[in-house]
Amino acid sequence: MATRAPDRPTAVPRHRSERFGRQLAYRLDVKASPYAYVMPFLLVFCAFGLFPLVYTAWVSLHDWTLLSDVHKFVGLDNFAFLLGDDYFWNATFNTVSIGLVSTVPQLLLAIWLAHLLNRPLRAQTLFRVTLLLPNVTSVVAVVVIFSQLFGRDYGLINWVLSWFGVGAIDWNAGTASSHVAISTMIMWRWTGYNALIFLAAMQAVPRDLYEAATIDGASGFTQLRKITIPMIKPTIVFVVITSTIGAMQVVAEPLLFGTYSPTGGPDRQYQTLSLFIYENFAKLDFGYASAISWMMFVFIVIAAGVNYLLTRRSGGNLT
Amino acid sequence: MIPRLGSGKARTLTYLTLIAVVFFSALPLYYSVVVASRDNSALADVPPPLWPGGNFVANVEKVFDTVPFALALLNSVLVAGSIAIAVMFFSTLAGFAFAKLRFRGRNALLLITVATMMVPTQLGIIPLYLIMVKLEWTGSMYALIVPALVNAFGVFFMTQFLSRALPTELLEAGRVDGCTTWGLFWHVVLPVARPAAAVLGMLTFMSAWNDYFWPLIVLTPENPTVQVALSTLAAGYVSDYALSLTGTTLGTLPLVIVFALLGKQIIGGIMQGAVKG
């Protein structure tokens, strides 16, 4: 332990005062220096993390634009207006829709892939590296590439679909089709990453459980359902919650898919909450944008809480 | 590694599935190289072009003519590089204190650190912008670097690693030899922390390189990072996919190369960081 007795046998000071000085320096070092080590983190966190969060609440109570130095206090007016704003509810619907369409299949696929990789395989490293390759690709690159793939006239996806007699789909125009396109981008980027996190958890599951199950004649799928999933439940809860938080924050995909338009398509068919914040930010209406931010925070807490309860309950126990 | 593959049929099926996954992971990247090496008009062909053409160099020149791409590359290297170094250093420092030193309020602070990892960053983006306006850092790389100097994930990652990998006896031996706490950090902690810090540095570099939303808000198109330049390229030249995908390829290539070389370590780091309970 770091708090050991101050007198050390190696250095015996000659005078009392010298000894006292050394003891003081030592005590100071042990007691105070830990604070110095965590200080850079705390400073950055307070200035650029905590303060902005609290300040958002303050700004949301004002009629606050960047154009004027006078910020009139309006109480909860921004929130009252928000609740009656159709654009806000539209953005909420789009966020939930894109969130579900992208997260649910993604996590199921990720668990299945991790299950497949959790065996002695050749080229294990190659599989893992390629799984993570999409995650190394930036959001901008992903959206630019997929916008091309989802192109109405010359896109690769419509070309493949035409083999099956499907007519050219205008992916960008419809609500459902644009949500599928954006969800595909999110899935492509994150499935492999989550599969690796599940795989890490699966490798910590004691192997004799599987041995016993194999002797009892349980199939691979039964083993996945009855052993693996209950055993990695803490990781599943963690991934579900981080994915929920991520899904609530989707912004770059719809922004770029709509070629930079903050409305998320001409009919706002894929404007997410974060994009709605950005739209009002770009209009310099900071008060309103802050109010939306806080509502989004409330939604995130609710969604994370609900997911926490759901994932903890489902899946049965190992008994 | 159990469970074992059962029959030969199951084994084949597993490999086929994984090969399909590899195919779909690599396909969009491959196709962007195809488009980037073509003339834009070739994209209207039926069937679409499926292999690279010879137009890449011409497209690259056009990218550099259209947006300040050299400056963007320089900015991105500067920003991602300095953030990665700072995060490695400050996270190891704080991680050492949280993992091995005793001080009042340690557990409370650690709890706050973990909690903040869950708080969405976008919530504070408006006040953060107001701060940058006050500091007159809008349009400058300071606005990207300073808020990112150290983060909760890095501190947590290093705390986890050091509490496991750094033997307390080693620190006690150092104390007996008359080391100050700073001396312990420098001579004992840093050498032990190096592998984990390297992984953290690579992860940080990648996410800083790919960061888009905050740079878009706070920077100008005249002094961009790579991602901001790419979005300018994509937004201004919607119809010219060859041009925007050339930019995408150029901006992604450095990371893909780094990743291909160090992928194994990076994956190890992600999987280590994942098992937190």
Automatic annotation (TrEMBL), chain A:
<dbReference type="Pfam" id="PF00528">
    <property type="entry name" value="BPD_transp_1"/>
</dbReference>
<feature type="transmembrane region" description="Helical">
    <location>
        <begin position="156"/>
        <end position="182"/>
    </location>
</feature>
<dbReference type="GO" id="GO:0005886">
    <property type="term" value="C:plasma membrane"/>
</dbReference>
<feature type="transmembrane region" description="Helical">
    <location>
        <begin position="286"/>
        <end position="310"/>
    </location>
</feature>
<dbReference type="InterPro" id="IPR000515">
    <property type="entry name" value="MetI-like"/>
</dbReference>
<keyword id="KW-0472">Membrane</keyword>
<feature type="transmembrane region" description="Helical">
    <location>
        <begin position="35"/>
        <end position="58"/>
    </location>
</feature>
<protein>
    <submittedName>
        <fullName>Sugar ABC transporter permease</fullName>
    </submittedName>
</protein>
<feature type="transmembrane region" description="Helical">
    <location>
        <begin position="87"/>
        <end position="114"/>
    </location>
</feature>
<keyword id="KW-0812">Transmembrane</keyword>
<dbReference type="InterPro" id="IPR051393">
    <property type="entry name" value="ABC_transporter_permease"/>
</dbReference>
<feature type="transmembrane region" description="Helical">
    <location>
        <begin position="126"/>
        <end position="150"/>
    </location>
</feature>
<keyword id="KW-1003">Cell membrane</keyword>
<feature type="transmembrane region" description="Helical">
    <location>
        <begin position="235"/>
        <end position="252"/>
    </location>
</feature>
<keyword id="KW-0813">Transport</keyword>
<dbReference type="GO" id="GO:0055085">
    <property type="term" value="P:transmembrane transport"/>
</dbReference>
<feature type="domain" description="ABC transmembrane type-1">
    <location>
        <begin position="92"/>
        <end position="307"/>
    </location>
</feature>
<dbReference type="InterPro" id="IPR035906">
    <property type="entry name" value="MetI-like_sf"/>
</dbReference>
<comment type="similarity">
    <text>Belongs to the binding-protein-dependent transport system permease family.</text>
</comment>
<keyword id="KW-1133">Transmembrane helix</keyword>
Automatic annotation (TrEMBL), chain B:
<keyword id="KW-0812">Transmembrane</keyword>
<keyword id="KW-0813">Transport</keyword>
<dbReference type="Pfam" id="PF00528">
    <property type="entry name" value="BPD_transp_1"/>
</dbReference>
<feature type="domain" description="ABC transmembrane type-1">
    <location>
        <begin position="73"/>
        <end position="262"/>
    </location>
</feature>
<feature type="transmembrane region" description="Helical">
    <location>
        <begin position="184"/>
        <end position="209"/>
    </location>
</feature>
<comment type="similarity">
    <text>Belongs to the binding-protein-dependent transport system permease family.</text>
</comment>
<feature type="transmembrane region" description="Helical">
    <location>
        <begin position="142"/>
        <end position="163"/>
    </location>
</feature>
<dbReference type="GO" id="GO:0055085">
    <property type="term" value="P:transmembrane transport"/>
</dbReference>
<dbReference type="GO" id="GO:0005886">
    <property type="term" value="C:plasma membrane"/>
</dbReference>
<keyword id="KW-0472">Membrane</keyword>
<feature type="transmembrane region" description="Helical">
    <location>
        <begin position="69"/>
        <end position="96"/>
    </location>
</feature>
<keyword id="KW-1133">Transmembrane helix</keyword>
<dbReference type="InterPro" id="IPR035906">
    <property type="entry name" value="MetI-like_sf"/>
</dbReference>
<dbReference type="InterPro" id="IPR000515">
    <property type="entry name" value="MetI-like"/>
</dbReference>
<feature type="transmembrane region" description="Helical">
    <location>
        <begin position="12"/>
        <end position="31"/>
    </location>
</feature>
<feature type="transmembrane region" description="Helical">
    <location>
        <begin position="108"/>
        <end position="130"/>
    </location>
</feature>
<keyword id="KW-1003">Cell membrane</keyword>
<feature type="transmembrane region" description="Helical">
    <location>
        <begin position="241"/>
        <end position="262"/>
    </location>
</feature>
<protein>
    <submittedName>
        <fullName>Sugar ABC transporter permease</fullName>
    </submittedName>
</protein>
